[in-house]
Q: What sequence folds into this?
C-alpha cells in the first residue's frame, strides 16, 4: 500500500515538473514563431501610402498589453498579398502566451496607469509599423525568464 502510494506520488510529481518545463519551452517557441512571422512580413510587404497608428518604443511596461492590442487592431489594415501570413500573425498576437508575456505589471499597477489610446500614437507607414511591431515583440521576448 505504501509502495503504491509512493509510486503514484512520484508519477504525479514527474507530471507536474514536465508540464512546468513544457510551458516555458512552448512559450519561448511560440514567441520565436511570432517574431519570425513579423520578420517575414516586414521583408515581404511593400511600402505604400497606408498609414497606421503605431505604438513606439517608449511604451511603459504597464501599457504594453494596450500597445499590443493597438498593433493587433491595426495589423489587418495593411494591404498585402500575404493575407494568410498577416492573419496568422494577428491570431498569434491575441494568444494568451503573448498577451501575458508582454507586460510584467500586476492588475493593480495597470489600473493606476493611464495608457494612450491607439488613435493617439503617431501615424507611420506600413513598413515602419511592422518594424515597430517587431521591435516591440523582440523587447518582450528578451524579458522572458
A:
Amino acid at each position: 500500500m505504501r509502495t503504491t502510494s509512493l509510486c503514484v506520488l512520484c508519477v504525479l510529481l514527474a507530471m507536474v515538473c514536465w508540464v512546468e518545463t513544457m510551458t516555458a519551452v512552448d512559450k519561448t517557441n511560440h514567441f520565436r514563431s511570432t517574431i519570425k512571422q513579423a520578420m517575414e512580413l516586414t521583408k515581404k510587404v511593400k511600402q505604400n501610402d497606408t498609414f497606421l497608428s503605431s505604438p513606439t518604443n517608449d511604451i511603459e511596461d504597464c501599457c504594453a498589453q494596450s500597445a499590443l492590442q493597438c498593433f493587433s487592431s491595426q495589423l489587418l489594415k495593411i494591404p498585402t498579398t500575404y493575407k494568410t501570413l498577416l492573419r496568422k500573425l494577428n491570431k498569434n498576437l491575441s494568444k494568451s502566451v503573448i498577451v501575458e508575456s508582454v507586460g510584467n505589471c500586476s492588475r493593480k499597477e495597470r489600473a493606476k496607469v493611464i495608457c494612450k489610446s491607439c488613435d493617439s500614437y503617431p501615424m507611420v507607414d506600413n513598413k515602419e509599423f511592422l518594424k515597430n511591431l517587431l521591435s516591440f515583440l523582440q523587447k518582450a521576448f528578451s524579458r522572458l525568464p
Q: What stands out?
A: Residues 2-44 form the longest helix (43 residues). The chain has a mean pLDDT of 84. The chain is about 65% helix and 5% strand.
